[in-house]
Amino acid sequence: MLLRQLEYLVALARARHFAKAAQACHVSQPTLSEGIRKLEDDLGIPLVQRGRRFDGLTPEGERVVLWAQRILADRDAMRGEIQALRAGLSGRLRIGTVPTASTAVALLTQPFCAANPMATVQVFADLRSEDIVNRLRAYELDAAVTYHSTVVAHGFKYVPLYQERYVLLLQRSAHDAGPAEISWEDAAQYPLCLLHPGMQGRQVLEAAFEAVGVSVTPRVETDSIASLFAQVRSGQWASIVPHAWLHVFGVPAGMQAVPLVRPVRTERIGLVLPAREPVSVIGQALVDAVGRAAIAATLERLPDQGRAP
Description:
Elements: H1 3-15, H2 18-25, H3 29-43, E1 48-50, E2 54-57, H4 59-87, E3 91-97, H5 102-115, E4 119-124, H6 129-137, E5 143-147, H7 148-151, E6 157-164, E7 166-171, E8 182-183, H8 184-187, E9 192-195, H9 200-211, E10 220-222, H10 225-233, E11 238-242, H11 246-249, E12 255-261, E13 267-273, H12 281-293, H13 295-300
Parallel strand pairs: 3-4, 3-5, 8-12, 9-10, 9-11
Antiparallel strand pairs: 1-2, 5-13, 6-13, 7-11, 7-12
Helix pairs in contact: 1-2, 1-3, 1-4, 2-3, 5-12
């Protein structure tokens, strides 16, 4: 069995197409097909359902892909560690995030890059929680920032970062200072613009409203936190956003961010890495950066109303 054959199989599982998989591996399609056939002969099982086109993997093939992904990831991690021992950490850190937590990623990349000047970072923003789980399992991400509740059952390495809290974002009245805080029940009475229902950030809000016995039907839905701010700026809508995002946009002039209380709802946000021992050298470098970032303390300091952070 050759590692190159495992690469062919993983590429085929990802592309679901022989020609595209061959292109990704920079080989001809016959070379890729022959490599996979040799792997099947070596293992003594069919891995691919073959027809006139790619029809999927066999059940055995699906299992072998999981092993192949881990074997290849361990190979890459070993190379990275050897390189780090010889010349310092290099390579690319691949980190994913759900949209609501991308602020934390920005606070991590600076100390990581400062400590590892030869390394680069690739951020995959706006991922859904299930996408993060799948990419971590396939070793397509080195780490991710997401909700603890979405990964706790999957056995990943988890490093706490901060507690997400929520504010009602609305237009500031010229004649009324507005409330200092607001209940979830009262917030439900505003014309709301919220995240798309399929997003974990929206599901957290739905659970908070359900806990106080109310339901909401937003007039506008979006898959972008930035879009929520833009919609509120139009003057017609209010929105509920994670407090961490106020450190990106601040509280824009003419707007007010009102903490949501009764109850104060929090969600645990953390750094997640694939379950492997030893941890990859680039993953460990990111964990080390967490200790220098002071993310929780930074995000607890809400900016002044109507001012940038």
